[in-house]
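Data availability (excerpt). The following record was deposited with the supplementary files.
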Amino acid sequence: MVNLKKDKYLLILFVLSFVVLTTAFFIEYILGYQPCNLCVIERIPYALVIIIILLNYKFKDDQAFYSVLLLLVFSFSFIISLYHLGIEQDLIEESSVCDSYNMNLTTKDEILSSFQEIKISCKDVTFKIFDLSLTVYNMILSILMFFISTKIYSINNAIKK
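Predicted structure:
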């Protein structure tokens, strides 16, 4: 991996996370593609990374702790993306997280309002780039960002020694 300073690696993670979130919101709100529940959950690690990096700059004493958090966040991001890909490929059954039906409808108003809500199944890929779902891109980015976080962790350990 390229030998950069730790701050450059943190900046790369911050910018990538910001671009991922901005792209996801652009696809949802500007292009009009509705995400499934897992797609929304897959955004959480990127928001957490932005918060962790900002905290890292605020509290300089806990550098190793924040680098471990980054590793955990990208591990979670990869696992949830792998799970989502398994659902998209019909290798795994949809769980209650992906439940697209609301069965607790008791009044006429709840039933009518439920018809207005569009629920997307986690099996349905509504948006692709170069014939790959965004879940695949999320997996690739999660792996890349995990390796960058590993480099940050190793730099923190080298500084301590």
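Summary of structural features: The beta strands are 128-129, 132-133.
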